[in-house]
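Please fill in the sequence for the structure shown.

STRUCTURE ENCODING:
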């Protein structure tokens, strides 16, 4: 007997759906919100989650991250192509409109559960969950595509250019490429070009002879020569000075390096992996980066998705880090409270994995010794990090003069309610009406680009 969890805040609909499913021999559990579902039930014990899209406190789509591998069927009373596509893109197993037809609901439930059982049966029994290569964690589509590209490129000697925001794990990609290549037994030398002073970068990379410049009291081998036979990873290659770029180009073209002050060059066999968060093509057009070097290193490109676009990976990484830091301080492994899970999976993480790592480490340190879980307040995510003035104008809410009966997304409804009532309600009252915390309200203001109005409150204080 398959076990189904219904998450629906309207008791009449929830009861009707439970009776329908029980008539068809399904075991059914109920919850009225995302918080109640995560608090009362373990998703590993259910075969399917059927959730309304609009719920108090958090939308049903939050369950797509929280339910792990359990399929989620989304229901909504304001069916539209836009909300259907958005739900499916976020990972929903299927989508059904309310009021639903009984036969259609049962047919959809059978199809979704059957497809999930078939996928589990076809999955390798010994598959290690989530961990792929070189410590990289995640099973989202963007990560599976990245793993595939690494597996294809690593055995070759092709130069790789990795793009990604700060904190996305570009060095892990370089390590994965190195470990899967024929050079795995040789050195992997990692260099952050932005961390070495411009006056020293050439000497550090290419080495120098004794007396080549003031302070060069002995000859020194450079990092390029140290990577001979292995892999050289140059992080933030866009920060490399033009003179050093010319020397690097010679290494790539001729396979040789000449230390500063030396007369002769020496042969080196180095595979280059470069990384940057900057647009090198644009820098080349502005003559801030050598165009010939750009084309030389731009053989295979890999782009790392930011954490906010990796879906369920966020929670998997957070739990891995939690286990790691608890072991480091020699305490029993903590768990994230339902509120903390919701915060981790809804925050945008502008600092990506590095910011998540810092937040988890801080929470482990600050959590009381007698506590078994990390709560939202201890996690202390900085929701005010991105100023509202910098919000993307394309993500601003629609005009309030549109027909209120038109098809609106959940965000549009949220924006409409806030803008219509923020002049007459305090932030606490707004949050209470919406069924969210004040921090959650502020975060969604930030995401939707709705600044908090303070002018009226200041004027009242003056009168």
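FILLED IN BY: designer on duty
SEQUENCE:
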């Amino acid at each position: 007997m398959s076990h189904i969890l219904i998450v629906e805040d309207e008791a009449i609909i929830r009861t009707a759906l439970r009776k329908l499913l029980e008539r068809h021999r399904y075991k059914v559990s109920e919850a009225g919100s995302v918080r109640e579902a995560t608090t009362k039930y373990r998703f590993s014990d259910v075969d399917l989650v059927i959730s309304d899209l609009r719920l108090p406190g958090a939308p049903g789509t939050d369950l797509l991250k929280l339910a792990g591998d359990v399929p989620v069927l989304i229901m909504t009373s304001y069916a539209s192509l836009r909300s259907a596509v958005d739900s499916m893109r976020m990972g929903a197993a299927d989508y059904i409109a309310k009021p639903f037809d009984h036969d259609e609901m049962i047919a959809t439930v059978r199809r979704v559960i059957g497809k999930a059982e078939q996928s589990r049966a076809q999955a390798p029994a010994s598959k290690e969950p989530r961990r792929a290569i070189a410590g990289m964690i995640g099973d989202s589509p963007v990560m599976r595509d990245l793993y595939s590209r690494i597996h294809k490129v690593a055995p070759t000697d092709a130069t790789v250019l990795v793009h990604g925001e700060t904190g996305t794990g570009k060095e892990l990609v370089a390590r994965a490429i190195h470990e899967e290549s024929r050079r795995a037994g040789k050195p992997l030398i990692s260099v952050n070009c932005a961390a070495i002073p411009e006056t020293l970068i050439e000497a550090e990379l290419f080495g120098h002879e004794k007396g080549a410049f003031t302070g060069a009291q002995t000859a020194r081998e450079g990092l390029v020569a140290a990577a001979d036979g292995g892999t050289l990873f140059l992080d933030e290659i866009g920060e490399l000075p033009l003179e050093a770029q010319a020397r690097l180009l010679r290494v790539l073209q001729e396979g040789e390096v000449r230390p500063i002050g030396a007369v002769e060059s020496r042969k080196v066999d180095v595979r280059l992996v470069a990384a940057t968060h900057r647009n090198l093509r644009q820098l080349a057009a502005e003559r801030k980066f050598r165009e010939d070097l750009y084309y030389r290193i731009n053989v295979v490109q890999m782009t790392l998705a930011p954490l906010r676009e990796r879906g369920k990976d966020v929670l998997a990484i957070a739990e891995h880090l939690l286990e790691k830091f608890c072991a480091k301080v020699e305490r029993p492994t903590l768990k994230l409270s339902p509120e903390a899970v919701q915060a981790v999976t809804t925050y945008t993480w502008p600092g990506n994995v590095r910011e998540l790592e810092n937040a988890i480490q801080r929470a482990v340190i600050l959590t009381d010794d007698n506590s078994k879980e990390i709560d939202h307040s201890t996690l202390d995510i900085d929701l005010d990090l991105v100023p509202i003035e910098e919000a993307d104008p394309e993500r601003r809410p629609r005009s309030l003069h549109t027909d209120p009966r038109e098809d609106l997304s959940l965000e549009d409804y949220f924006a409409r309610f806030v803008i219509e009532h923020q002049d007459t309600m305090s932030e606490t009252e707004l949050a209470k009406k919406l069924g969210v915390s004040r921090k959650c309200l502020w975060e969604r203001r930030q995401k939707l680009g709705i600044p908090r109005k303070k002018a009226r409150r200041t004027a009242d204080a003056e009168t």
